[in-house]
């Protein structure tokens, strides 16, 4: 049964490059899947990243952050591009993303990587290795070396320029991400692998100690530990051994990009960033793809699947989320492929971003 009174405000942050193209498709999918479940959306579009730099001089205007904070969930496209790479003032568009994550206090980044049977040929790994991979990387998002102080530029004793950063983790930061990871593992296959570099780094030694302490609260989850270099290797050697992986900010950044290659396309992978309260931030894991921006070549499905995560993890609207996930599979089953996931095989049709969006809409509601 559907109740007609559910209304949510969604902040849309298209950003740069292919961001606006993929957000437009995801917005339509949200609107349609929502309407079929009696959900009404109010969308508010705001500038972020390079687009915001050009408009306002900063990558995250105050109005954008306050709109995001007031809404029920935030859907982001992508940030950055060649245009701002040599910014004189060192004001990088990407700073806007870091500020947004910090402003929304989203400390847990959930990145699923599953090899869909329809796309097993797109995997960079052998079919036997890739088939059936279904893992989730839980990445700590607001701490670690990307935020640690001191940081900056300076000079060493020889007067040579240096750049430096600091890896810092406090107990409470590790405990809260560990709990989210254990709970995620509980909802999946009950296996959690914590990835660190505890043989070398003090921040990792504390990480391992705290994860082991929190484990006592989750006796039903099977916990293992792995060094990050080994994890990077195991991910390509035998990715099926993993269910849920929990790791720090920088290792998670790298390992989830690696996991994305296993699945065959960075254009298929969504993410959810969650905090303790307040709106979640949902975004594809890919970047702004400036090489194909504005050419109607982008795969919108990562953003569409991010919208499904928004419904599921952000709003608790599982049925509407399911409609979108099913429609993505149906569109793939009907052979529609953007360039990044295209392989020459019977029934496959190469399409652009807009046409993919149209086919997706047909899959969500064949009547439209
Ligand atoms: P950024 O710094 O913003 O992360 P990047 O170039 O490092 O940019 P991506 O933007 O993710 O990384 O792009 C990496 C490659 O994957 C590019 O060749 C890009 O064209 C491709 N790519 C990324 N996203 C998509 C997508 N949605 N559809 C098709 N191709 C994509
Ligand atoms: Mg990148």
UniProtKB/TrEMBL annotation:
It comes from the Eukaryota. This is Uncharacterized protein.
């Amino acid at each position: 049964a559907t109740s007609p009174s559910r209304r949510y405000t969604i902040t849309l942050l298209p950003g740069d490059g292919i961001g606006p193209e993929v957000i437009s498709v995801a917005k339509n999918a949200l609107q349609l899947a929502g309407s079929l479940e009696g959900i009404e959306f109010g969308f508010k579009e705001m500038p972020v990243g390079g687009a915001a730099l050009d408009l306002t001089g900063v990558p995250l205007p105050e109005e954008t952050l306050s709109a995001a904070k007031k809404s029920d969930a935030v859907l982001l496209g992508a940030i950055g591009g060649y245009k701002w790479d040599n910014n004189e003032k060192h004001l990088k568009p990407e700073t806007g993303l870091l500020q947004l994550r910090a402003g929304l206090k989203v400390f847990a980044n959930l990145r699923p990587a599953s090899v869909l049977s329809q796309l097993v040929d797109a995997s960079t790994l052998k079919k036997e290795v890739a088939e059936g991979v279904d893992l989730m990387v839980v990445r700590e998002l607001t701490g670690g070396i990307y935020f640690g102080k001191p940081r900056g530029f300076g000079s060493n004793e020889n007067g040579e320029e240096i750049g430096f950063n600091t890896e810092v983790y406090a107990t409470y930061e590790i405990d809260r991400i560990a709990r989210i990871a254990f709970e995620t593992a509980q909802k999946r296959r009950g296996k959690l692998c914590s990835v660190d570099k505890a043989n070398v780094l003090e921040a990792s030694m504390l990480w391992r100690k705290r994860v082991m302490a929190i484990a006592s609260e989750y006796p039903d989850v099977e916990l293992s530990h792995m060094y990050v270099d080994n994890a990077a290797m195991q991910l390509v050697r035998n990715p099926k051994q993993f269910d849920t992986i929990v790791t720090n900010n920088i290792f998670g950044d790298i390992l989830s990009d690696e996991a994305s290659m296993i699945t065959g396309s960075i254009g298929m992978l969504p993410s959810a960033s969650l905090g303790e309260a307040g709106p979640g931030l949902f975004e594809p894991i890919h970047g702004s793809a400036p090489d194909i921006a504005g050419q109607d070549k982008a795969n919108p499905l990562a953003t569409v699947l991010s919208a499904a995560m928004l419904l599921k993890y952000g709003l608790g609207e599982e049925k509407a989320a399911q409609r979108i996930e099913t429609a993505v599979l149906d569109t793939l089953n009907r052979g529609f492929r953007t360039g990044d996931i295209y392989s020459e095989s019977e029934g496959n049709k190469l399409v652009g971003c807009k046409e993919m969006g149209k086919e997706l809409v047909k899959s969500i509601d064949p009547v439209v």
